[in-house]
Amino acid sequence: MKALFLVGGMGTRLRPLTNKIPKPMVPIMGKPLLERSILNLKNVGIDEVVLSTCYRAQYIQRHFGDGERFGMKIHHVKEDIPLGTGGAIKNAEEYFDDTFLIFNSDILSDIDLRELIKYHREKAADVTIAVTQVDNPSMYGVIEYDENDYAISFKEKPQPHEITSNFINAGVYVFEPKVLEEIPAGRAVSVEREVFPQLLEKGYKIAVYKGCSYWIDIGTPEKYLQAHIDIMAGKCRVSGLDLSGKGIYKGQGSDIHSSVKIQGPVYIGANVKIEENASIGPNAIIGNNVHIGRGAKIVGSVIWDDVVVENGAKLVNTIVASNCRIKQGCEHYRTVYAEEDSRTMAI
Ligand code: GTP
Fold it and tell me: 282-316, pLDDT tens digit by residue?
């Protein structure tokens, strides 16, 4: 089986983190989310994927190439203009002649893909949509379904009085290739707003799969930060990461002064230098090649690679993009900070 990742979105809600890099490439515990998602497929025996790119396509092309480095076969299909989620699927049609998976690339979840595929087959569905329950579905695509768990209606970003289900589209689908014939070519199409409702009208069977226990879309800075806190709390497991031992992970080559106060859970990447009397954690995620000066304090924050935090600076519930320098004594609370831009988060 093959999989398609939709990776071409502009990621506007995650700015300024997405000013230079596409949203699927933001690091989750030090590794691009898309890389984590692709590598997860290997565990279920999928080793061929198609990446549907548009915004900052070169960045993704450079990182993954033909996939050999990851033991995968990776194809890139680039759009010159954004075709939307449905148009992007249609544009990759030539790669799919059998049942295949589709993923939005801003999702962190523990969905069991083997179970999802098995379910799709048991339901003899044309499309299966993974759904997840949220308290407030008003920002999402809500799906209503019948007693046999087949979709009966779709509502994008419903008004409060229109909310009749709190199961939302989780951005993970199983498709039968015949469905691709129903998507118009050569123009922007939304799979959520246009394709799914039309498939229903035409009598296609769309099953809903409710098996996600953890799910978050990292499409805003608040959610991006929350995803890290959830991982640190053990709510979502991330492969290759051992936070045992007081919840402290230290990468290779890190030089941490003996006076530094570390309060787990904390993740420290490779080649990190932390100077005396700094205070790190709880919930601090520090990328590779980061220098943290004397007496600096980092709490509830995510710092990307190649960052310098000068002496006495303080970061609380803050995200710092790569190559930034936080000046001596500066304090940032609930801030998203990139070289050229910053903004406050609503948390
Ligand atoms: P926002 O601008 O913050 O809404 O983010 P986004 O542009 O990524 O949009 P959204 O979160 O709705 O996208 C869901 C998924 O579809 C993401 O994985 C996007 O990368 C992808 N996507 C959205 N629009 C396009 C598109 O026009 N082309 C392709 N190839 N992928 C898209």
Answer: 999 999 999 999 999 999 999 999 999 999 999 99
Most ligand 1 atoms within 8 A of CB, residue of 5, 25, 104 to mutate: 104
The CATH code of domain 2-217 reads 3.90.550.10
What confidence tens digit (pLDDT) does each residue in 201-254 have? 999 999 999 988 899 999 999 999 999 999 999 898 887 776 666 688 999 999
pTM beyond 0.90: yes
Q: How many Å apart are CA 61 and CA 78, to the nearest integer?
A: 10
Compute, in angstroms, the gap from residue 62 CA to the centroid of ligand 1.
Answer: 20
Question: What kind of architecture, by CATH, is found in domain 243-346?
Answer: 3 Solenoid (2.160)
Q: Is the CB of 7 under 6 A from ligand 1?
A: yes
Q: Which helix (H) or strand (E) holds 41?
A: helix 33-42
Q: How far is CA 16 from CA 74, 117, 175, in A?
A: 28, 36, 34
Catalytically active residues, by annotation: 157
